[in-house]
């Protein structure tokens, strides 16, 4: 189905793509479309969906990217003219530091150009662009992936003085999460979370785990900030209600369920630690030694 | 906002995914809202469990889009940010404009009726006050009438002192006439006739005159639009008068008189947020638009060009649809970008901040015919251009071209302060398809490629086009 549809749409898509300007031959372009279509066809779309998919592709950018991946100089000239500055600006926005941004952009350029080879073939990251989104958006995403992979896992050597001047609050890391006091609570919570949609879970995770702001989450999902605020509020109430109901089904009374839900397991852990520390201080070693001598004297 | 129980956070953290990350192009398409619902749901399902991919999506978002209202912060801006108040002001503006129109109409009607019914009035007033001389009997009525219409009269006087109402201008070009006409060209007036300094019917006094080699650009306030004002400043290369960078208090459209032009003015109807504008005009087969650009003015007239000027695109009065006027500092050239949503953006600080650019606030549609006989002037209804999704932008210093969906092509020669819509045509052929590529190595020479496989070239900055 992919091949026949590509043959049918090749003329139209080839004209749209401007392949001649970037040095991409018709047959090569046809092969690229088949590759992209086959990848999408793995989701078993209908013919109409596949046709819509092909027509919605950023076909000119796909041709440019693949021509660059193949090493066509004309394509590279166009690519650099259009995206060089944007790539650097995106890297600067991601890395927030000039030197890191330049390194990030330069690294990506090397990957895009294809400095590595496999079996004599140059491997360019641009060969993985399929035209589903804009090339610029794809470049930003690849930059972000590179940044997340490299810089967030590497300790940044930042002066503590700098950070304190910026208002960074240094605090002890959170202790390891311990198992819930009552296993029924974890089960009830998992059950409630399983009913959440992917979007709801994304919102909650981004807000409570990643510490993202409402504005950032709204931008990520393409909605208004107030929508996110209302959704979080609604989800918090819903989860609480569902967990209470699930705990009730597991034999807890409402009061027990509320107490179980409101107890912070880390507070319990600290209480135990505190009580252990107090017991230890009460029987100091010197006192115990003195008592032992007294007993020996009596004996 | 109610917090979730801590156990929820613990269990959210426990259910993370570390494999099967979506590919970069899928994440990019997700960010740009280009994925079908099914695929989007799959990506969201993964994002709900993968902090790494959430970070990637957030980092990969384009720079935050900002409305290009370059203006000194006014205390009411935050207040006007409420959508309800914004629309309320828009509605109030429309009501005021309509009321003024009705008052003016009534005044004109009454002036005619008063002339006809003058003998009757004294009889009526004499019954009330016999001491009142007949001639004075009409005075109360006139006073009342005049008091009612005083604002309208003042505005009418102000109008007279100004350039004519924004007359949708249609110019039938003849060979040798330029294709480029600045927006909202008034008809029948020569150079040097401009708006009186200051008084405008609908807004604060404006001190804004812009001259471009004999053309007077007169700024005329529209009905008060509660958008933050934008400074207007432009330095046209070779222009006579530097821009006056005074900050207007409201958005405005720029109407420009063409120097020496005797164009036919067509009857057209503009729909502007429900208020009709119409101007009587005399159709003519051979109109001539002279776009004077210094010494090139006469030269441009002599070139073989046709031009048809569609009615200027009147943006409907909506809260945020304001004329985006960007303060261009001399020598500072912005950089341009197309947002993920297809919006045109510019940055004056090397990309640190970006501003949306609205090309429809003061654009005029221009068609350029190449060769062929002098076209008949066409009367067209002035319809606002459909929203354009930009695909490409090309800039050469202050000269900027932007194109996108529906074959819409816009040009600015002052770094985006003003835009003109360009409709390349050759004979009966017009540009079709989306504009997908622009190549302008210099302000004069360029090529436009469309999704329909067409390539249009120009060698004179868009005044004439050839289809390849």
Describe the protein's architecture and organization.
The complex is a heterodimer of chains A (299) and B (468). Chain A is mainly α. Chain A is 72% helix and 2% strand. Chain A has a two-stranded antiparallel sheet. The radius of gyration of chain A is 30 Å and the shape is elongated. Chain B is an alpha+beta fold and 468 residues long. Chain B has nine helices and 23 strands. In chain B, a hairpin with a 2-residue loop joins strand 3 (198-200) and strand 4 (203-206). The longest helix of chain B is centred in the first third of the chain and has 35 residues, at 83-117. Chain B is flat and about 90 Å long. The N and C termini of chain B lie far apart (62 Å). At the A-B interface, helix 6, helix 8, helix 10, helix 11 and helix 12 of A face helix 1, helix 2, helix 3, helix 4 and strand 11 of B.
Can you describe this structure in just a few lines?
The complex is a heterodimer of chains A (299) and B (468). In chain A, 72% of the residues lie in helices and 2% in strands. Chain A has helices at 2-17, 19-22, 26-41, 47-56, 59-69, 73-95, 98-113, 135-150, 160-165, 183-194, 198-209, 214-221, 225-249, 254-262, 265-282, 285-298; strands spanning 116-118, 121-123.
